[in-house]
Amino acid sequence: MTSLTTKSDGNTALSPEEVRDLIPNLATKEELNEWERENILRAREWALGDRTRALELAADLYVRRLHAKMFDQTWKWAGEYRHSEKNIGVPSHEIRERLMALFGDIRYWIENSTYPADEVAVRFHHRLVLIHPFPNGNGRHARLIADVLARKLDAPAFSWGSANLVREGEARTRYLQAIRAADDGDIDPLLKFARL
After folding, report:
1. End-to-end CA distance of the chain
2. For all residues of the chain together, what is the average pLDDT?
3. Is 83 helix (H, G, I), strand (E, B) or coil?
4. Residue 50 near residue 65, CB atoms below 8 Å
5. Could you tell me which residue, 8 or 134, shows the higher pLDDT?
6. Cβ-contact 81, 92 below 8 angstroms
7. In CATH, what number does 26-194 get?
8. In Å, how far are 57, 180, 193 from 176, measured between CA atoms?
9. Tell me: the pLDDT tens digits for 132-154?
10. Domain coordinates of the chain in residue numbers?
11. Element (H, E) at 37
12. Radius of gyration (Cα) for the chain, nearest Å?
């Protein structure tokens, strides 16, 4: 069993202050992941049925609202940007500025058909993960918003390796390798992984 404050590869350790804002009484990451999974399934249903247009997904309000729906039964800070520094992500004081630049890029790419739908959605996912705006749940949030964006752009939702990417294992390792390749400017491994 893993403590809630233990960092692992690709995961961000929670600060004691962030852990104090946990709504249910849970002691391990395994318990937390299971609890969050149920919360996320309800949010996924809402997000895929929501009438928000593709361009409206690239907005502060939507990004925070989706995170809040995904984690509102888990964290008091669901939907709020982090104020603490993490082992990954931009400095917390840069989050809003970086997100505004990302939203502008996404809108431009959609309006000008710069990339195919899959690539727009995967690039959105990657940049959200890179920014890491929330204390927890950034990868799951970024994958869900990419799925929603793909669907709004008339493409199917992604399979993301057809595996549980929260658990340690081969699929998570491949996913993290694809993220790191995208960090280095090569989006192709992440595009391929998203459709495995």
Report:
1. 30
2. 92
3. coil
4. no
5. 134
6. yes
7. 1.10.3290.10
8. 24, 6, 10
9. 999 999 999 999 999 999 999 99
10. 26-194
11. helix 29-49
12. 16
